[in-house]
Write a structure and sequence with these properties.
CATH topology of chain B: OB fold (Dihydrolipoamide Acetyltransferase, E2P)
CATH class of the largest domain in chain A: Alpha Beta
Largest interface: A-B, 39 and 40 residues
Oligomer: heterodimer
Number of strands of chain B: 10
Number of strands of chain A: 23
Number of helices of chain A: 22
Number of helices of chain B: 2
Largest sheet of chain A: 6 strands, mixed
Largest sheet of chain B: 5 strands, mixed
Radius of gyration of chain A: 32 Å
Helix content of chain A: 40-55%
CATH architecture of chain B: Beta Barrel
CATH class of chain B: Mainly Beta
Strand order of the largest sheet of chain B: 8-1-2-10-9
Radius of gyration of chain B: 14 Å
Shape of chain B: globular
Structural class of chain A: alpha/beta
Distance between the termini of chain B: 41 Å
Number of domains of chain A: 4
Distance between the termini of chain A: 61 Å
Structural class of chain B: mainly beta
Strand content of chain A: 15-25%
Strand content of chain B: over 45%
Strand order of the largest sheet of chain A: 10-14-15-13-12-11
CATH superfamily of chain B: CheA-289, Domain 4
């Protein structure tokens, strides 16, 4: 059971944090001379409330400091003038209060003296030894905190809302199944159609409400940012105006919670690496005070979050490199890259734009960077509004269903003719050459070769595009995204999974993985395939399992396959082969003899076909029995190819293997 | 005496404390996850919940003779997972697993009806799975 004191303390922490954020925003406005009487009132009210609550809970240190701040604010209110120099000690007070509230307090005796001095002395009395600080401005949309709206709120644990959304999602699955069972509307009795239609409308409402409960405005995490920008700017000797627009834009709670860190990083980067020193700016004909912006704009099912600065921008060399590499984001987000010559403590050692990009990709978003030398830089994140529900395009490859967020699918095409460039396939889309790759190669799935003229998705993610081929397109659907769970959490490239109306599970694929890997997989088919493999050392050689009881034949086949660039494992009979397959899921093709002790080639083929995990694994039977009936029994057992040892030749074997593993 | 679910993998018998077992079902359709580790056979739809299917044979180092036919749904450490097995043989009491075993995943072994039964330490099995990277090595 919950401890009432602990609950109260928790409430106090939450409330104080919010009030301290409001005080920071107001004090920053005061510092820039943009504060009115209303701002002073709200500052006073907040200090007063924190003092009162702290006193009730027995937090005497908090009460004393809040009291000292309140006294300064009371004198200011009486005088009707707020000397901007008072803002600095008050900002130190809010920082100290925040630390105290969180239980990480430091001694505040000096600060209490400074506050007392503010109250007693004339405006402008700074503690000795401190240079007058440069004025920085924070003209945020929320510069003057609005009085709290009179809305009743309930505190509900986030898990309960997640559960509500889960349940709504599951009802949606049943709706899809029911609609499927009922058939088209034409076949339904009128009352059935009406009841179904009404249920459908209410379910949509329920779903939207549940999603709405999971989304929160960006303002929830934007509160401390002006203060952070100011502190970083001061420490770096920069003058910065920070502007937030679109703070009311809503985003998924889970995304918001994890967004603070990447945003903080981007803003620190903008101030430290982007904005020049005042002197440098003046030499470049810019105003001494730099400008950093945080803009959030809804874009359909996505939200665009831009961190922009008017600083020095990327160097011409970096921009030249970006032209060669594909995009500025690729160059700047390559691990370890930094726009400053030396890493400063302020920018956060070891965390670069690559960490931001990894985060953005992990939630199915994209990252783009635009910059011109001397003209500043824009870092654009496109993030989904809701994580739990997603519009996806479903497709099939190797008899399994996959989905990609619809927002990144530019269009779907039939691949009729591909160009081959440097051993890689490409397709002309809208006048530009875009790499083409088999989805099975990209995801690392075992799948039979693609048919002729396969359908394909054109994925467009920032500056990157890829054409991804599959067996069939199934259509678009709004699905409930479920995490893969802790056992598969570290597996990269998936956004999660979803249960479809027919009970099948669709794996939802991270689009960035597709565009990234499309540059690194071999060409689709044709003679250039070998070049493609050679050009990319990272491509793994497909692994072939040779099952043969004769040592000589086994080693002969091994040497032929290894010489052709395959990796080979062997087994003595069918039973041994099943054990190898159990141990090694990396096998992408089986070549088996027919007559063997323990379990023969037909038995092995049947066992492979019956296994859920590898029913689509290609099997070639090679044997001395070349009679037509033997060939038929092999094909009936599910073999993909049947070769007679008598007519056995290397080229035929390699061509068959190549056809079946799709390289 | 505590109650266990006894299960069969190839010719071997293992047991799980009944408190960790949520149910047993035919294996049906398993959704393979490309690039996942070989002992993770894929994902399974249990009444709208997506659960990972772990091959208990590979985890315990037992050589399988045929594909698994059943899944046993287990819960530990706040998570659920399915273990692919051949079948459940019995539910009943077992003596203390006093016999020592080599496997980290077993609490010990005990004799029952002439069989040596390995008693699976379910929380430890879950912990060891979570410690693995999902990616195929």
């Amino acid at each position: 059971m919950s401890d009432p004191d602990a609950d109260l303390t928790e409430l106090f922490r939450d409330e104080s944090a919010e009030r301290l954020d409001q005080m920071d925003t107001a004090l920053l406005a005061v510092e820039s001379g943009a504060a009115g009487a209303e701002t002073i009132d709200s500052l006073f009210r907040n200090a007063h409330t924190i003092k009162g609550a702290a006193g009730m809970l027995g937090f005497d240190d908090v009460r004393a400091l809040a009291h000292a701040a309140e006294d300064v604010l009371a004198s200011v209110r009486t005088a009707g003038v707020f000397p901007p120099d008072f803002a600095a000690p008050l900002l130190r007070a809010t920082a100290a209060l925040r630390a105290q509230v969180n239980g990480t307090a430091e001694p505040v005796a000096g600060l209490l003296d400074d506050l007392a001095a503010c109250r007693a002395g004339p405006p402008g009395d700074e503690p000795p030894g401190r240079a007058p600080e440069a004025s920085t401005a924070a003209a945020s949309e929320r510069a003057a905190p609005a009085p709290a709206a009179d809305v009743r709120t309930l505190r509900v644990p986030a898990e309960k809302i997640d559960h509500l959304l889960d349940v709504a999602g599951e009802i949606m699955q049943y709706r899809t199944r029911l609609a499927h069972s009922l058939g088209g509307q034409a076949g339904q009795a009128q009352d059935v159609a009406e009841a179904f239609g009404a249920g459908e409308r209410m379910l949509d409402d329920l779903k939207d409400t549940a999603v709405g409960m999971r989304t929160l405005p960006l303002a929830v995490i934007a509160g401390p940012l002006p203060r952070m920008v100011r502190d970083v700017a001061r420490a770096a000797g920069k003058e910065v105006e920070f502007v937030v627009t679109g703070a009311d834009t809503e985003l998924d709670r889970v995304i918001l919670e994890s967004l603070s860190e990447p945003l903080g990083h981007l803003l620190r980067n903008a101030v430290i690496h982007g904005i020049e020193s005042p002197a440098e700016r003046e030499r470049a004909g810019k105003p001494a005070r730099g400008r950093v912006e945080l803009r959030a704009t809804p874009r359909g099912s996505l939200v665009e979050i831009v961190v922009a600065d008017d600083g020095r921008g990327a160097s011409p060399e970096v921009i030249g490199e970006a032209r060669r590499e594909g995009s500025l984001a690729d160059v700047l987000a390559s691990p370890g890259y930094s726009t400053a010559e030396k890493v400063t403590d302020l920018a956060g050692r070891g965390v670069g734009l690559d960490a931001v990009r990894t985060y953005v990709h992990s939630v199915g978003g994209s990252l783009d960077v635009r910059s011109e030398p001397g003209q500043g830089m824009e870092v654009i994140q496109l993030l989904p509004v809701a994580l739990a529900l997603m519009e996806v395009l479903l497709f099939e490859r190797g008899a399994a269903v996959y989905g990609v967020p619809l927002a990144v699918v530019e269009k779907v095409v039939m691949v009729t003719q591909t160009l081959t460039l440097e051993g890689r396939s490409a397709l002309e889309v809208g006048g530009r050459s875009v790499p083409v790759a088999d989805f099975a190669d990209l995801i690392g799935a075992v799948a039979p070769p693609l048919g002729e003229r396969p359908p394909a998705l054109v994925i467009s993610l920032g500056a990157r595009r890829a054409v991804v081929t599959c067996d069939a397109l199934l259509g678009e659907e709004e699905v409930v995204v479920k995490p893969l769970g802790p056992l598969l959490a570290s597996l990269e490239g998936y956004l999660g999974a979803s249960i479809l109306g027919d009970g099948r599970i669709a794996l939802l694929v991270e689009p960035a993985m597709l565009t990234r890997r499309s540059h690194a997989v071999p060409a689709l088919t044709g003679p250039s395939a070998a070049d493609g493999r050679a050009a990319d050392g990272r491509a793994e050689a497909p692994k072939v399992l040779v099952v043969e009881d004769s040592f000589t034949v086994r080693e002969l086949q091994r040497s032929i396959l290894e010489a052709a660039g395959y990796s080979v494992v062997t087994a003595r009979d069918g039973r041994d082969a099943l054990a190898v397959l159990d141990r090694d899921a990396g096998v992408s093709l089986v070549i088996t003899d027919l007559e063997m002790p323990e379990l023969d080639g037909i038995g092995l083929t049947r066992a492979i076909r019956a296994s859920t995990a590898r029913s689509s694994l290609p099997v070639i039977i090679v044997t001395s029995r070349a009679a037509e009936e033997d060939r038929l029994s092999g094909i009936e057992a599910g073999a993909d190819a049947y070769m007679a040892k008598r007519s056995f030749d290397q080229q035929a074997l390699l061509a068959t293997v190549e056809r079946l593993v799709g390289r | 005496m505590p109650v266990y679910v006894r299960l069969r993998i190839a010719s071997e018998t293992y047991a799980m404390p009944v408190g960790h077992v949520l149910g047993v079902a035919d294996i049906g359709q398993i959704r393979a996850v490309p690039r996942a580790r070989p002992e993770l056979l894929g994902l399974w739809n249990r009444r709208g919940r997506i659960l990972p299917v772990v091959d208990l044979a590979q985890l315990l180092g037992v050589t399988r003779t045929g594909p698994p036919e059943r899944v046993l749904i287990a819960e530990a450490r706040g998570h659920q997972a399915c273990f692919a097995i051949d079948d459940v043989s019995e539910i009943g009491e077992l003596g203390d697993p006093a016999e020592e075993t080599d496997s980290d995943l077993l609490a010990g072994a005990t004799l029952a009806d002439g069989d040596l039964v390995g008693v699976i330490d379910v929380p430890r099995a879950f912990a060891s799975l979570e410690g693995l990277s999902g990616e195929r090595p």
